[in-house]
Amino acid sequence: MTARSILDRTGTLVGLILVAAIFGALVGRQFFAPANLELMARQTAIVCMAALGMTVVIAAGGIDLSVGSIIALTTVVIALALRADRAPLVAAAAGVAAAAACGLVNGVLITRLRVVPFIVTLGTMLVVRGAAKGLAEERRIEAPITWLNDLLRSETGRLLVPPGIWTLLVVALLIGGLLGYTRFGRHVFAIGSNERMARLCGVAIERTKIAVYTLGAALAGMAGLLQFSKLSVGDPTVAIGLELDVIAAVIIGGGSLSGGRGTVAGTIIGAAIMTVIQIGCSQKGLANWVQQIVTGGIIVAAVTLDRVRSVSA
Amino acid sequence: MRGIRKAFGATVALDGVDLSVAPGEICGLVGENGAGKSTLMAILAGALPPDAGSMAIGGEAYAPRSPIEARRAGVAMIYQELSLAPDLSVMENILLGVEPARFGVIDRARMRAMAASALAQLGHTDIDPATKVGSLSVAAQQLVEIARALAVGCRVLALDEPTSSLGRPDVEHLFALLQRLRAQGHAIVYISHFIEEVKAITDRVVVLRDGRNAGGGATAETSNEAIVSMMVGGRPAELFPRSVRTPGEAVLQVDALEPGSTGFTLHRGEILGIAGLVGAGRTRLLRTIFGLEPVKRGRVRVQLLPPEGGSHGGPEPAGGLSSRVSRGFRLQAEAPRDRWRAGMGMLSEDRKSEGLALGLSIADNLTLTRLDRFGALGVVLPARQREAAARWIERMAIRCGGASQPAGALSGGNQQKVAIARLLHHDVDVFILDEPTRGIDVGSKAQIYRLIDSLVADTAGGRRRAVLMVSSYLPELLGLCDRIAVMQRGRLRPPRPAAGLTEHDLMMQATGADAA
Fold it and tell me: Which of A107, A274, B135, B396 would give a disulfide with A210, using CB separation of 3.0 to 4.6 Å?
């Protein structure tokens, strides 16, 4: 393996280490204390879960702007189900199923109407947000406390990290496997890389795309579950603009908006970089605006670096 | 234009070409696909700089550095693909870049008058300068483009295949218009594949072949036969491999897909070639057969009987496969999938935008249609995928850094080998090859010729395949194919045995010179 390919494979990881080192130096040793690391993991979990789904969507050459709204809808559905005395597991399943249904609609609209995903999901972003507000009658939905609220609770027991983080890791492994080791995964990259070629090669483009958007939204639903766990209420106005953080995580992690690229490991690192900046800035006592400027700069820098790399390769 | 020379890398596109047109003259420029016509016109229009040679207009040296300079010097090009802004009005298009303005504000009244006078010069006062160009017919749009050329005072007008998207009456209108412009003293270069058009409208004809002047003369004194002879010339014979072949059972049957076309049947152990000029509809025919374009009429049938010798690995449809437009949109959209399943594979003419995914690895590109060999239940084990790709890389002598290398990093010839290896990996019976040797080096070409021949040879050991190929390079078709059908203006003519045909025959049919 040449030095270049090592850099290619580990570029984003180097970025994460660099950012962490900078804030480590600024904030001090306690930045790397186990409790602080766990805090960062919990902070990352929601964006990261949705970003795993977005990785698949972006690898297939698509985009989904409706994930923020889907997360909000999921929290509302879960809260309503819990209030109707459903079992927590049933409520969670209902939330994720509602999210997946949104993705199915996105996928069907994109393939049948032949409208670009950006426009379709821009529309459904508003539609789903509206539906969430309607369903909740524009209020926060209080729900009884159940074990769902413990998913991201700080864990001091034998689990080491909260169950939500374990779920995230399992899902990450599954998606990684799906993308790297299945026919579906190969088809996703083929469509994202060159849709005309995929068609020539007999890839079932419509079916695959519908599956991709459904999967992406289902993972947004899982993110919604984690969001609910953190809030303990159903909030139709939560996660406004979160889709941009989600997309940013995928892009920092090496995904390309023109499709055909993206990895699970990269996305996780991308999400982690953003969290390190956020937490680092707040612990250093830097204002929110500094945080935003730094995050924005990192996104542009990451994509620029990536371009330079792929051109010289 | 004198001694014009232009090379792209090692390929010499033009090698000392001369061309002159007098005011009040229409000069026809003809040549085979790739003879250098388009390159010459690009140089005239300032889109490409020549490597050597000189140009002059009206005695003054002319060396445009950009299309805008060419336009200012009075040279206008009308390309096959019209270059108008469909959402702007006719007058805005006509005066684009030279809008009459006072203090930066457009003088709309003057603009309208100028546009109207340019249209009147063409004898077309029926077009309203205020309508949007997008709402006009193709013929009217072409008029607008010519009017644009006149509005900036052009002296030399070059038209590249102007009739390719026009109907018969519109062609006659265009010819009347060109005669009018000739009478007004414009110098006109008329580029066309179609000999009968060149005969009808031009005063003089210039023939290009392989980037050189191949003759010409006054149109009235030059016969169709003579023009075609100049176009094909006396090329040195190349050696094409030809094993012993015996046509077997029919595997593909295509009905007449266009009005006036003929149907054909493809057999095992046979190479059927389709000749024709660019734009004659050859690629569309192949794409329709492969289900990439809707079947409008007629039908395509693939009949794959249990193959001779050894079993076919894939799922085999019992009664073959047929496709009609009435079977609906969904099936059409994913029809190529059925074709692959039926044992048919296609190589696209457009390697970069359809043939390969340049960002994906060689292994992915090569094995995409047949991933089921690398694991059960939809699982694909990358190690086994790479292993299979590595075998093809070795067998096809693909020069690369390994199966994981992105396809985009390979040379044209090696990319083409990857694209062809995909059909071999899938183990198809019917090979549909669109320009299999376009833009690749000589070594790869020879290798691909040997491969295509071996597919249909009796000695292939296993079963013999069938090949349907389109090529613009006539010697290649004559050298490889058993039968050749010519396509002219969307109509396929009946295939004829290649043994009795010459380049001259094919070119006569393709240009329509035999019918004129």
Answer: A107
Q: Does B416 touch chain A (CB under 8 A)?
A: no
**CATH code of A253's domain:** 1.10.3470
Residue A175 Cα distances to A4, A51, A172, B159, angstroms: 27, 11, 5, 55
Answer yes or no: is A288 within a domain.
yes
Using beta carbons and an 8 Å cutoff, which residues of A are at the interface with B?
Answer: 180-187, 189-190, 193-194, 196-206, 260-261, 313
CA distance B358 to chain A (A): 8
Q: Do A197 and B357 touch (CB under 8 A)?
A: yes
Domain at B242-343+429-440+457-516: CATH code: 3.40.50.300
Q: Amino acid letter at B364?
A: D
> Mean of the pLDDT values across residues B14-31?
89
Judged by CB atoms closer than 8 Å, whether chains meet at B354 and A200 is answered as yes
Give me the domain span that covers residue A77. Answer: 35-312
Q: Do the domain assignments include residue A273?
A: yes
User: What is the model's pTM?
Assistant: 0.80
Cα–Cα dist B103/B248, whole Å: 78
CA B17 to chain centre: 23
Q: Which residue reads 């670009």 in tokens?
A: A116
User: Could you tell me if A195 and A110 are in contact, meaning their C-beta atoms sit under 8 angstroms apart?
Assistant: no
Pick B378's closest partner by Cβ from A180, A183, A190: A183
Q: Which residues in chain A touch residue B330, judged by CB atoms under 8 angstroms apart?
A: 206
Neighbours of B110 (CB within 10 A): 14
What are the domain boundaries of chain B? Answer: 2-232, 242-343+429-440+457-516, 350-428
Asked whether the beta carbons of A40 and A276 are under 8 A apart, the reply is yes
* B329 → chain A, closest CA residue: A112
The total of structural domains in chain A comes to: 1
Q: Nearest CA to B277 among B495, B31, B452, B78?
A: B31
Q: Do B380 and A181 lie within an 8 Å CB cutoff?
A: yes
SS3 of residue A229 by DSSP: helix
Do the beta carbons of residue A151 and residue A229 sit within 8 Å?
A: yes
- Listing DSSP states for B154-171 in one string gives -SEEEEESTTTT--HHHH
Of the candidates A186, A196, A261, the beta carbon closest to that of B353 is on A196
Residues of A in contact with B409 (CB under 8 A): 313
Amino acid B305: pLDDT:
47
Question: In this model, does residue B242 exceed pLDDT 70?
Answer: yes
Most B-contacting residue of A197, A257, A307, A311 (CB-CB within 10 A), to test interface: A197
Q: Is B79 on the interface with A (CB under 8 A)?
A: no
* Mean pLDDT, residues A136-162: 84
Q: Which of B283, B360, B385, B424 to mutate to test binding with chain A, by most A CBs within 10 Å of its CB?
A: B360
What does each C-alpha distance from A227 to A50, A144, A223 come to in angstroms? 11, 16, 6
Same fold flag, B2-232 and B242-343+429-440+457-516: yes
d(CA B37, CA B208): 7
Q: Distance (Å, rounded) from C-alpha A99 to C-alpha A217?
A: 5
For residue A294, what are its two tokens? 């730094």
Position A67 scores a pLDDT of 97
What are the pLDDT digits (tens) for B364-385?
A: 999 999 998 898 888 999 999 9
Is A17 contained in some domain? Answer: no
Please tell me the predicted confidence (pLDDT) of residue B222.
86
- Measured between its terminal Cα atoms, the distance across chain A in Å is 14
Sort out which chain B residues have CB atoms less than 8 A from A187's CB and list them: 368
Q: Name the DSSP letter for residue B81.
A: S
Among the CATH numbers 2.40.10.340, 3.40.50.300, 2.40.10.120, 3.40.190.150, which is that of B2-232? 3.40.50.300
Is A87 among the domain residues? yes
For testing the chain B interface, which of A1, A184, A200, A310 should be mutated: the one with the most B CBs within 10 Å?
A200
